TrEMBL record:
Residues 58-100 form the MYND-type domain. It comes from Absidia glauca (Pin mould). GO terms for cellular component: nucleus. One of its GO terms (molecular function) is zinc ion binding. The keyword Metal-binding applies. Gene3D superfamilies: 1.10.220.160, 6.10.140.2220, SET domain, Tetratricopeptide repeat domain. Keywords: Metal-binding, Zinc, Zinc-finger. This is MYND-type domain-containing protein. It comes from the Eukaryota. InterPro entries: H3K4_H4K5_MeTrfase, SET_dom, SET_dom_sf, TPR-like_helical_dom_sf, Znf_MYND.
Length: 580
C-alpha cells in the first residue's frame, strides 16, 4: 500500500504518515490539535476477550452489561456471552458461526489442549483476523476504492494497512518462528480456514504482525479485558512521554491528544506504562517490540530526560511479583518492611491541617532547608505548583499568560456546579508558579533535589511503590485520613510521570475525591472539628473539579467513573446546601 492512500484518509483527521529512518513510519499532525481532542477512532480487524473476562463483558462489543441486566450465554457452545440478540447476531455473522461448537466438542477440542494461555489467545486472534481477511477480500474482489479521501476507515484501508504492518521477521530467533508456524498449522487445520486459500506462510506472517502491533483492550477502570488488532492505530509510534493516549469504548478504539499538539509534531502513544523506571521500560520495549527507545524521556537532556534520574529505580521486581501473586502487600521482611514502617510513621505524623496552613499561607510555602523533606512537606510544597497547572489544563478558558505567572481572578461560577477551582487565598499569599508545565517540572525538580536526603526519599519510585501499597491498604481498612494523605503524595508522583488528561491521572483524582469525602463523613462521626472538616471539603471540591474535566475526556461520559463522579458531586453539593 502506498503512503498516499493512507494519507488520503488520515488527512481528513488532520494527520499525516511519513517514513522516518529510525522508526519506520510515523504519524504527524498536519494541523494543530487541542488537548482532549480525539484524533482518530478505529475498528478492529480482530479481537479476543481474555478468559477471565469472558463471563463479565459482551464477547462481541466488549461492553459490561447495564446495571440490572445480565449477559446472555450462547445456547450451543455455552462458552460465549453477549449483551443481547444484536451483539449475538453480529458475532455470529463475523466469526461465531465458525467457531461455535456444542459443549462436548469444545471440551474435547484437542487443538487447544497443548497450548498455554498466550498461545491460545494468539490462535484465537489469528483465526478471527484470517477469517476477516478472507471474507473482506472475497467481498471486495478486485474492486479497489476510489481516490476520494474518506473520513471513515474503510475495509480496504484496514486490510491494506494490516498487510503493511511491521513483523520484524528477520529479527526473530528460530524458536519464536517455529512457535508461530505451529500455531499457523493449528489454524489451518480448522475446516473453515482450510478452504480459505490462506497459506501457512501468510498466517505465520500475521502472527509476527500481532506481536508488534496488537493492543491490549481495557475497560473503564483500565483493567485489561482482551486484545485487538487495529491496523491504522498501529501506525502510531511509542514514547515514554506520549502526547496521546489510547482509549476504548467497548472494542472501539480512539486515540486522544493529552497535550496541545502543533502542526508538524509527531503523535506518540505509550506501549508500556511510563511509571516503570527507564531500564525496565527499555527492556520491555526491546523484548516485546524489538526496538531501543530513543524518546524524549529516554535520551533528551531537557527536563523530560531528567525525570528518570529524579525517580530512580523501581522496587525490585520480586517484590512486585509477590504483591501481584498474592493480591496483597509484599511480605514484611528486611528493608522493605523497614521502609513501609518508616513511611507509615511519616503518614501518621502528617498533620494535614498544619501543612495546609503552612504551605498555603506563608513564606511562599518552602520547607525548612536544613532538614530532609518528609512525604508531607514534599507533597504540600509540590502541590502548590502542580495543582494550578492541572487546574488550568482542565479549564480551557484559563491560560498561564499573566505576568505574575499565576492565573488571575476567576469568573464567578455560573451555577452551583463545581466548575471552578476553590482556592480562597489571595494571589499574593501564594508562591509564583512558572508559566509552563516543563518550567514547573524543572522548578520543583531543582527545589526538591536541593534538600538533604534521608532513608526515605519522597520523589523516588521505590517510595512511590510502597506508598501506593499503603494507600490501597488504607482504603481497604477504611483509614480515610491516611488514604487522603497518601493519595495526595501519589498524585505528585504521577505529575512527574503522566501529563494532565492521562486516564491514570483522571482515575486517581476521582479516588482522591472519594477518599476526601469519606474523610468528611469520618470526621463528622469522630467530631474532629470544623477546621479539619473544611480542609477535607476543600479537597473534595478541588479533586472533583479536577477529575471532572479529565474523566470526561480520558474515559468519557458513558463510563462508570463519570457516573461515580457525578453522584459524588451531587451528594457533596446537597450536603453543602443543607449546611448553609
Ligand atoms: C506498532 S508499530 C508502529 C508503526 C511502525 N513504525 C510502522 O512503520 O509500521 C511498532 C514498531 O515501530 C517501531 N517503533 C515504534 N516506536 C518506536 C520508537 N520510539 N523508537 C524506535 N522505533 C519505534 C518499532 O519498530 C516497533 O516494533
Amino acid at each position: 500500500m502506498t503512503l498516499a492512500a493512507l494519507n488520503d484518509y488520515l488527512s481528513c483527521h488532520g494527520l499525516l504518515v511519513q517514513s522516518t529512518n529510525a522508526k519506520g513510519r510515523s504519524v504527524f499532525a498536519n494541523r494543530s490539535h487541542k488537548r482532549g481532542n480525539v484524533l482518530i477512532t478505529s475498528q478492529p480487524l480482530g479481537t479476543v476477550v481474555s478468559p477471565s473476562s469472558r463471563h463479565e463483558i459482551c464477547n462481541y462489543c466488549f461492553h459490561k452489561p447495564q446495571p440490572l441486566c445480565t449477559l446472555q450465554q450462547c445456547s450451543q457452545c455455552k462458552s460465549a456471552y453477549f449483551c443481547d440478540m444484536t451483539c449475538f447476531k453480529n458475532a455470529w455473522l463475523t466469526y461465531h458461526q465458525y467457531v461455535c461448537q456444542p459443549t462436548a466438542a469444545t471440551l474435547t477440542d484437542h487443538h487447544r489442549n497443548d497450548l498455554d494461555e498466550s498461545d491460545a489467545l494468539d490462535l484465537e486472534m489469528l483465526e478471527r483476523v484470517a477469517l476477516n481477511c478472507w471474507r473482506y477480500n472475497k467481498r471486495l474482489g478486485n474492486i479497489r476504492s476510489g481516490t476520494t479521501a474518506k473520513a471513515e476507515e474503510g475495509v480496504q484501508l484496514t486490510l491494506d494497512t494490516f498487510y503493511s504492518l511491521v513483523g520484524h521477521q528477520h529479527d526473530d530467533n528460530g524458536q519464536r518462528h517455529r512457535r508461530r508456524q505451529a500455531l499457523a498449522q493449528h489454524a489451518l487445520s480448522r475446516s473453515y480456514l482450510t478452504n480459505s486459500g490462506l497459506t501457512e506462510d501468510q498466517l505465520t506472517d500475521y502472527l509476527g504482525k500481532f506481536q508488534y502491533n496488537n493492543f491490549d483492550i481495557h475497560d473503564d477502570h483500565l483493567y485489561k479485558v482482551g486484545k485487538g488488532n487495529y491496523p491504522v492505530a498501529s501506525l502510531f509510534n511509542h514514547s515514554c512521554r506520549p502526547n496521546a493516549v489510547v482509549l476504548f469504548d467497548g472494542f472501539l478504539l480512539s486515540i486522544m491528544a493529552i497535550e496541545p499538539i502543533a502542526a508538524g509534531q509527531e503523535i506518540t502513544i505509550a506501549y508500556v506504562d511510563p511509571a516503570h523506571d527507564r531500564q525496565h521500560r527499555q527492556s520491555l520495549l526491546l523484548n516485546k517490540y524489538a526496538f531501543t527507545c530513543q524518546c524524549v524521556r529516554c535520551v533528551d537532556t531537557t527536563i523530560y530526560g531528567r525525570i528518570d534520574g529524579l525517580l530512580g529505580d523501581e522496587a525490585m521486581d520480586q517484590d512486585n511479583a509477590l504483591a501481584l501473586l498474592r493480591h496483597a502487600t509484599p511480605p514484611m521482611t528486611g528493608s522493605s518492611s523497614t521502609t513501609r514502617a518508616a513511611i507509615l510513621q511519616q503518614v501518621n505524623d502528617w498533620d494535614l491541617l498544619e501543612m495546609c496552613r503552612r504551605y498555603d499561607r506563608r513564606h511562599h510555602g518552602a520547607p525548612d532547608p536544613t532538614g530532609p523533606l518528609t512525604l508531607a512537606s514534599y507533597t504540600h510544597f509540590a502541590i502548590q505548583f502542580f495543582a494550578p497547572y492541572l487546574w488550568s489544563a482542565c479549564n480551557p478558558a484559563i491560560s498561564f499568560s499573566s505576568a505574575s505567572s499565576f492565573p488571575g481572578a476567576l469568573p464567578s461560577p455560573p451555577s452551583r456546579a463545581l466548575s471552578y477551582f476553590d482556592d480562597p487565598l489571595p494571589d499574593s499569599a501564594k508562591p509564583m508558579v512558572p508559566t509552563t508545565y516543563d518550567a514547573i517540572l524543572n522548578h520543583v525538580m531543582q527545589a526538591v533535589q536541593a534538600y538533604p536526603t534521608s532513608d526515605i526519599i519522597p520523589w523516588r519510585l521505590d517510595t512511590l511503590t510502597t506508598a501506593a501499597q499503603l494507600l490501597h491498604d488504607a482504603m481497604k481498612h477504611g483509614q480515610w485520613r491516611n488514604a487522603v494523605k497518601l493519595g495526595m503524595y501519589v498524585l505528585i508522583q504521577y505529575c512527574w510521570i503522566y501529563p494532565p488528561y492521562h486516564p491514570i491521572l483522571a482515575q486517581h483524582l476521582l479516588l482522591l475525591a472519594k477518599c476526601s469525602w469519606n474523610s468528611i463523613i469520618k470526621s463528622e462521626l469522630l467530631g474532629d472539628g470544623k477546621a479539619l472538616e473544611m480542609a477535607y471539603e476543600r479537597g473534595v471540591r478541588r479533586w472533583i473539579m479536577l477529575s471532572k474535566e479529565t474523566l470526561a475526556h480520558a474515559v468519557g461520559k458513558h463510563s462508570e467513573q463519570w457516573r461515580e463522579m457525578v453522584e459524588l458531586e451531587w451528594i457533596f453539593l446537597r450536603e453543602q446546601k443543607l449546611k448553609e
